[in-house]
Amino acid sequence: MRFVSGLKRFGLVSLMLLNTAISPLTQAAEYEYLQLPNLSLASGDKFPLKQLTDLSGKALSEQQFQGKYVLINFYSEHCAPCIREVPVLNQIMLRNKDIHVLAITPDKAEEAKQYLQQYALQWPVAAGADQLLFNQIGVKSFPSFALLDRNGKLVTTVYANQLGGEDGNATLEGIEKWLRLKMRSAKL
Question: Which of 18, 74, 65, 22 lies closest to 46, judged by CA?
Fold first, then answer.
């Protein structure tokens, strides 16, 4: 009888420890990411891709992004965390075939070309977007991200420093976790 009582107590203690260990995982799944404040676009609004131009000055085509989610990276050449996340975003492109990555910068096209070559970006860049970013949409923080659904509508935005390690830099795991969560919620 004492043995059975001990097993019950052991089981209860084990269950309490297991619950304590699972609790942080549950909390992590419910983590609320801070969206960029004061944007003129709300979730579900069409993102103005057709107002953007590539590095040769040609207007971007919405059709080139149709059918896939679009991860937009808002960056500036003078932003050190933006530079550190380039290899991570290159990996996102390689590992996630259902996602397009697009960089949007207020930098002039020549500056963006140099940045692209120096840091080996493997995705399209829309340069000279200062009016669109600052005045029309209201993006004020670099690096930051936006996620568009398969139809070019805004799902959500996030500060890049929420997607990574303790050093405040976005990581592959942090970005992919955010993408999975937000893409899943966009399908609902």
Answer: 65
Residue whose structure tokens are 């971007």: 60
Strands (E), 34-181: 69-74, 99-104, 125-126, 144-148, 154-159
* 162, 177 Cβ separation under 8 angstroms: no
Helix locations, the chain, DSSP H: 2-29, 80-84, 86-95, 109-119, 130, 172-187
Beta bridge partners of 101: 71
Contact 70, 148 (CB under 8 A): yes
pTM attached to this predicted model:
0.82
CB atoms within 10 A of CB 89: 23
Whole-angstrom distance, CA of residue 11 vs CA of residue 85? 46
Instruction: Please write the tens of the pLDDT for every residue from 65-85.
Output: 889 999 999 999 999 999 999
